[in-house]
């Protein structure tokens, strides 16, 4: 077993019907699914999830956007999970993302950027625990 990261397939990608294609890319890159669900955030829960960004100018819009439709939340496992997953998804701004990355292929804008990926092991654990109980994940 490797270590873990956390991802969301965001409302733009979910709404466009790209969840399956994105999960396929994730599995083909060697990540194992440890927990998975479709759900929808309220604006309040989105605000809590993205609390670290609350002083940023895009925060209000981000909370509105992230609660605008269904998402998929997942915990993923692989050696070097956090760093390797960030490579797989590409830069936050899809116009700066490398060819072949999930955001390059599926993202619509810097906000509607198809997927989230945790930026550290510590945040991966916090974010996974935000969505999933012990009974909702592979041991
Ligand atoms: P994510 O990696 O989930 O973390 C914060 C999110 O804020 C980011 O992806 C985007 O969806 C959104 N966002 C919107 N505008 C910006 C911006 N200018 N810089 C960074 N993130 C932004």
What are the defining features of this structure?
single chain, 139 residues, alpha+beta, Alpha-Beta Plaits, four-stranded antiparallel sheet, binds adenosine-3',5'-cyclic-monophosphate
SSE arrangement:
Blueprint: E1 3-9, H1 11-15, H2 19-28, E2 32-39, H3 43-49, H4 59-66, E3 71-78, H5 81-89, H6 102-106, E4 115-117, H7 121-131
Antiparallel strand pairs: 1-3, 1-4, 2-3
The structure holds adenosine-3',5'-cyclic-monophosphate.
Adenosine-3',5'-cyclic-monophosphate binds at residues 53, 58, 62, 92, 110-111, 113, 116.
Keywords: ATP-binding, Kinase, Magnesium, Metal-binding, Nucleotide metabolism, Nucleotide-binding, Phosphoprotein, Transferase
Protein name: nucleoside-diphosphate kinase
InterPro entries: NDK-like_dom, NDK-like_dom_sf, Nucleoside_diP_kinase
Tell me what you see in this structure:
This protein is an alpha+beta fold and 139 residues long. The chain has a single domain (3-134), classed as Alpha-Beta Plaits. Helix content is 40%, strand content 19%. The protein is built from seven helices and four strands, in the order βααβααβααβα. Strands 2-3-1-4 form a four-stranded antiparallel β-sheet, with helices on both faces. Helix 3 (43-49) packs across helix 4. The longest helix is centred in the C-terminal third of the chain and has 11 residues, at 121-131. The radius of gyration is 14 Å and the shape is globular. The termini are close together. The structure holds adenosine-3',5'-cyclic-monophosphate. The site of adenosine-3',5'-cyclic-monophosphate has 8 residues, from loops. Pfam families: NDK. GO terms for molecular function: ATP binding; metal ion binding; nucleoside diphosphate kinase activity. Belongs to the NDK family. The active site is at residue 116. Its EC number is 2.7.4.6.
């Amino acid at each position: 077993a490797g270590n873990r990261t956390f991802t969301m397939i965001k409302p733009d990608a979910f709404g466009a019907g790209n969840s399956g294609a994105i999960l396929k890319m994730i599995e083909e890159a060697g990540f194992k699914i440890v927990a998975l669900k479709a759900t929808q955030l309220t604006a309040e829960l989105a605000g809590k999830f993205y609390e670290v960004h609350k002083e940023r100018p895009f925060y209000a819009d981000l909370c509105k956007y992230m609660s605008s439709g269904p998402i998929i939340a997942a915990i993923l496992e692989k050696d070097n999970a956090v760093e390797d997953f960030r490579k797989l998804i590409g830069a936050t701004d899809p116009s700066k993302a490398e060819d072949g990355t999930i955001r390059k292929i599926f993202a619509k804008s810097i906000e509607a950027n198809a997927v989230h990926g945790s930026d550290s092991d510590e945040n991966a654990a916090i974010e996974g625990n935000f969505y999933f109980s012990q009974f909702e994940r592979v041991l």
